[in-house]
Amino acid sequence: MKGDVAVRATSDDKEVTTYHRERRKVMRTDYKITLRVDIDVEDNETKQVIADALRNAAQLLYTQALLVSGNRKPQIGLESNNSYEGTAEIELFNPDED
After folding, report:
1. Segment 84-90 long-range contacts (CB within 8 Å, at least 24 positions apart)
2. 48-68: per-residue pLDDT in tens?
3. What residues does 11 pair with on adjacent strands?
4. 3-state secondary structure string, the chain?
5. Which residue pairs from 68-74 have beta carbons closer than 8 angstroms and sit at least 24 positions apart in sequence?
6. What CA–CA distance (Å, rounded) separates 60 from 32?
7. d(CA 5, CA 9)
8. pLDDT value of position 26
9. Nearest in space to 18 (alpha carbons), one of 31, 5, 32
10. H or E element at residue 20
11. Is there a smaller number of Cβ atoms within 10 Å at the N or the C end of the chain?
12. Is the pTM value of this prediction over 0.70?
């Protein structure tokens, strides 16, 4: 079994094998991707195209991280920020709410 360590002990002509899990050193790591785009304040179509592209890329990254993660699920968040509208969260799986 992966990650298990066998411990053998003998007593009175019997050999007993027990297994225990090795403790792994685990740390939470943050990764960051920053994208800056000049967009007309009223150009909602371009904003939506960028939001959709970010959502698609983030879903791919999240899926790959989920496949290689251990017991604890990865966390992901998307947001946009500009000086006119402030910070807005971009929903990862609910595009109708943008």
Report:
1. 84/41, 90/51, 90/54, 90/55
2. 999 999 999 999 999 999 999
3. 14
4. CCCEEEEEEEECCEEEEEEEECCCCCCCCCCCCCCCCCCCCCCHHHHHHHHHHHHHHHHHHHHHHHHHCCCCCCCCCCEEEECCCEEEECCCCCHHHC
5. 70/24, 70/26, 72/26
6. 15
7. 13
8. 75
9. 5
10. strand 14-21
11. N
12. no
The one-digit pLDDT tens for each residue of the chain (98 residues) are: 455 655 566 666 677 666 666 777 778 889 888 899 999 988 999 999 999 999 999 999 999 999 998 788 899 999 999 888 899 888 888 766 54
Q: Which of 1, 45, 50 is nearest to 21 (CA)?
A: 1
Q: Kindly report the length of the chain.
A: 98
Tell me what pLDDT residue 72 has.
85
For residue 94, give both structure tokens: 């609910």
Structure tokens at 7: 């411990």
Compute the C-alpha angle 63/87/47, nearest 5°. Answer: 70
Report the DSSP beta bridge partners of residue 14. Answer: 11
